[in-house]
Structure formats: C-alpha cells, structure tokens
From TrEMBL:
Active site: 199
Domain Uracil-DNA glycosylase-like: 184-347
Organism: Phellinidium pouzarii
Location in or out of the cell: Mitochondrion; Nucleus
Name of the protein in question: Uracil-DNA glycosylase
InterPro entries according to UniProt: UDG_fam1, Ura-DNA_Glyclase_AS, Uracil-DNA_glycosylase-like, Uracil-DNA_glycosylase-like_sf
Amino acid sequence: MGSVAEAEGTVYLEDLEVKRKDVATLVSVPASRTETNPAIKATGAAVTGKRQRTLMEMVVGSAKTKGPEQASKKAKLTRTCSTISAGGSPSSSSPVVTTFGLQPLNSVPFSMQAFKDSLTEEQRRLLELECETMGKSWLKILKDEIKKHYFIDLKKFLWSEGVQGPDVKTNKVFPAPRNIYAWSNTPLGRVRVVIIGQDPYHGPGQAHGLCFSVPHGVAVPPSLRNIYAEIRAEYTQFSPPKHGNLTAWANSGVLLLNTALTVRNGDAGSHSKRGWETFTDKVIEVVDKYGGANLGGTNGVGRGIVFMAWGAWAAKRVEKLDKHPSPLSASRGFFGNGHFKAANDWLEARYGKDELIDWCKLDLEEPAQSP
C-alpha cells in the first residue's frame, strides 16, 4: 500500500509565510483537510568526501547542481477531503475502523512475547538490541521490517563490528549500543517535525543517537553552532547554550533521525550502504503515515508533519513523499532560511498553538521514554 501522502495528496507550495524563497527544508502533509498547507523542498551539495560536513557545506552548492529547467518548475498543490467512520476502540469481536486503509496507531496490537516467539534463535540473538531499546510505539510498526533479510544482514555486519547486544560495550562503533535507537524515545504519535542528518558523529563521546546532537560536556560541533545561529536570527530572545544536547527537542516531538544510525570510530560514512538507508527510509514512511497521530484533533493516523531536509542525501530520503517535487535554490546558504519559524507557523495553522516547538528551550538532559 502507498503512503498516506500518496493516498490523500501531498501539498507543496513555494512559500511558507517566509519572505525568502532560498530555503532548504520540506514540509510533507497529507491533505486530509482542505486548508492550503504549504511545503518547501530544496536539495544541497552531494556527499563527496569521507569527513562529516558542516551545514554550510551541506546546503551551499545546491544551485550548482540545478539546471534552469529544474529551477523553473512550479510546486504542485493537491487537495482532497476525507471522512472518518465513527466507532469505538476495536476489539476482537468488532471490525477495526481504518482511515485510508490504516489502522489507528493506538489500536495496532503488539505483544513483545509473541514477537520474540516468532523469531528464530539467530534472530533473537541479533535483534535483542531492538527488542530492548527501540521505543515500543515504533517497534510495533517496524517489527516486520527488522525481520527482513537486509536488516538481519545489517545486524550480522554490526555484530562483526562489535555491536553485539545492548550491554556489550565497544569503542569501535558509535553511538553506544543503547543509544542507537535513542531517536525512537520520541513517541511516533507525537512526532510533528523531522530533522534528518547523515550519519552519527564519529569522534569518541560525541554521538548519542540524536542527529546533530551531542551529550552535555562535549564541545558544540560546527554544524550545530550554525543551527543555533539561525535560531538566534529568527528568535532574538534565544541565547545559544554552551552545550549541544538537543534532547529537549526530542521530548517536544522533534524526531532527530540520522540516515545511517551507526559509524565506525574515526571513519565518517563507514556504515553507509550497509542497510541503514533502507531502514531509515522505512522509518520516514512510517512517520508519513502516523506522525502526529496522537496530537489533538487527530483520528489515530497522521495529519501531516514538517520535514527539514538539509543536504542532497536528506532530500533523497524524503523525495518519495512527493511524486512531483519542486526543488528550490539554496544558493544563498543555510543562514536566513527561516526554517524554524516557518515550521511553527505551519504547526500552529495545522494543530494550534499548543503544538508549537519551543526551539529556544534546550535545558533537558534525558529523552522521555516512549510507551
């Protein structure tokens, strides 16, 4: 089955209450209501080196890869209305009410014991980490994905690299095994913004499972300093913290997802093309279906979320959400793009003021555990 975006139509416009057009973000929204909800998408420079790049490198240069024909394309707007069947919570004796073929998130059944019983002995060994550390709102939707051959092959590779379960320590791969799925501590039904990174920081002590984020006590990386500078430009009251821990955003419904979830010590990109990209593509597909499912006024499936895709590889991750993308130039760079206010403007129009992201609040330390 196709995604909700495919079933309902995805809304794409060139301007999101932002004066500048040169931005590098994407908003994907199922058009389940008739409001005109804009979305923006732009690609960045291609990945060419082994070292991790700054945000400026990710974004600047995209104009060099865009031809006049591509730059002149107009965004596509599709709007449809939906009606939801009324009914109570599903039970074993009553049919499950679905919306666009999707079962409401909270009514999707899941038994950890039944799932473990369905695994072979090898799968139980390889998937112990996922069973123990992945947020349950994600695991119940991704349980079939992690049993696929490509994912088992990925886990065999990681086992050979030293990732051999939740409690086996290794200094060869980052982040620590228990932090690989830290992003999933943001409950699926509460996600309303997705920020996509590339791969984890490859220096000791830096990566902790949230893209662009580092634990307290670790120097703020250049890319995150650029993010802080942009927030400061949009919200003058923001005082950039001396730390780089973005857990507060994760607790607020911002999914901080890297494209690859692990990396070899000191070797940027070393775990790319091993299967993580396929898995995180599935994660994005799941968010497209269920992101925001538990926000006010929803019916158990997604009503639209904001994707911030900085760089060509990130744009590739979300391109399937729109069959007719309209890439915009990012020739003026990352600064001044207005992403953060634009995201909140859209969230307020879609969900109301109670669902805004407080981009200026970064004082929490540990992610809230998802149910």
